[in-house]
Design brief:
Blueprint lengths: L5 E5 L3 H7 L4 H10 L1 H11 L3 E8 L7 H24 L3 E5 L7 H13 L7 E8 L1 H17 L10 H5 L15 E4 L18 E4 L9 H12 L9 H10 L1
Parallel strand pairs: 1-2, 1-5, 2-4, 3-4, 5-6
Helix pairs in contact: 1-2, 2-4, 4-5
This protein binds farnesyl diphosphate.
């Protein structure tokens, strides 16, 4: 099987999963949060190098207060409960997004754990929290403009390679490019997720809601990805020649 180096997942459908069963929406988030651990384990086992999970978007701040407080509680719990296992498995976990918008209480949990895992060299696990790709890109433009004003860069320095260094995914370096985006729940859209980074990604849209998405479904997505012909804008014969030389 051809294993994608960077997989990004839009964990969608928690609310619908719960509502269809007559439960409050937050029950879907609770069940959905239990799916993260086995997924991370499977990604690690398969040799995926980077896994980015869309946990909370810049638009999700508009959700009802009660739902937000459950989401924060679940995220906090995940960090605290999983720290030991992530450390043992040499997994590096980092948050990408507007971390400065999170409450001091959440930061006091996330920051030290992120710091303690920062030297790990195995699977790169990125949790996108208060993340939006338009915010990512506009922030990058601002940072670059400031570097120009400060005399550290010139406008003509900007390139696709340099742009990467200004995005929230900068620390992933050559792993920033996403190979496979999976979205659950049957919705077929990108929802402001990793627009730059997934420029040449393959997309798989699963009908399953996130709380039903299990490791075997990740494996099925990877099998499907394996069968895709990635041409990066070239012709099939060019890419097959390139493969022969690899
Ligand atoms: C989308 O479902 C999901 C979210 C907005 C939150 C995702 C959060 C989790 C899976 C739990 C916590 C995460 C971690 C990493 C522990 P939705 O509510 O938009 O579903 P709907 O489209 O059916 O309403």
């Amino acid at each position: 099987m051809k294993i994608p180096r960077h997989v990004a997942i839009i964990m969608d459908g928690n609310g619908r999963w719960a509502e269809r069963r007559g439960y409050p929406r937050v029950f879907g988030h609770i069940r959905g949060s239990t799916r993260v651990k086995p997924l991370v384990r499977e990604a690690d086992r398969l040799g995926i190098r980077a896994l980015t999970l869309y946990a909370f978007s810049t638009e999700n701040w508009l959700r009802p207060e009660g739902e937000l407080s459950v989401l924060w509680r679940l995220l906090k719990k995940y960090f605290v409960k999983e720290f030991q296992e992530l450390q043992k498995k040499n997994i590096r976990m980092r948050v990408i997004g507007e971390i400065e918008r999170l409450s001091p209480e959440i930061r006091s949990v996330i920051d030290p754990i992120q710091e303690r895992l920062s030297g790990n060299t195995g699977l790169q696990l990125n949790l996108a929290i208060s993340y939006g790709s338009r915010r990512d890109l506009s922030r990058a433009a601002k940072l670059f403009a400031q570097d120009c004003v400060d005399g550290k860069r010139r406008p003509e320095d900007m390139s696709e390679q340099l742009m990467r260094e200004y995005l929230w995914t900068a620390e992933l370096a050559e792993l920033s490019d996403v190979d496979l985006v999976i979205r659950t729940s049957g919705e077929v859209r990108v929802s402001n997720f990793l627009l730059w980074q997934s420029a040449y990604a393959e997309f798989i849209f699963s009908e399953l809601c996130w709380p039903d998405f299990k490791p075997e479904h990740l494996r099925a997505c990877i099998e499907e990805y394996s069968g895709r012909d990635r041409r990066f804008g070239q012709t099939a014969s060019q890419t097959s020649q390139a493969k022969e030389f690899q």
